[in-house]
Amino acid sequence: MSYVVGFGDSYPIHVHHRSASIPWDGHQYSCEDGDKWLHSEDPNPNTLLGAMVGGPDQHDKFLDDRKKPWFTEPSISSNAGLVAALIALHDHPCESSNSNCVGSGIDKMGIFTNIHSFPSPP
Known about the structure:
This protein is mostly helical and about 120 residues long. The chain has helices at about 20, 30-40, 70, 75-90, 110-115. It contains five helices and no strands. It is globular and about 55 Å long. The chain starts with 17 loop residues before the first helix and ends in a 9-residue tail after the last helix. The model has no long low-confidence stretch (mean pLDDT about 80).
């Protein structure tokens, strides 16, 4: 299982995050209003693509449960390290000195598809 939302075939679908679990329907909801989605068993209506959740416990057990944020909540501290590591491994499609490069904006899936691994030491 991947603990990065949207990466791989199996990843968390009950992420503990307001932007993922409350529908984007033009209404503003209070914290109390959000409780109905917090306690819902339905998958999140919005995918928080690329967010890394807390992950498994010390016994390698993971519960994809929105009401258990220690498993399913993405945090700034854990995601900062992940983003830094992925950026360091990312093959950018264009060199910065190449002014003829077209489409050099951010590719939201490129961070996953263009990852390369370091060769194993001899």
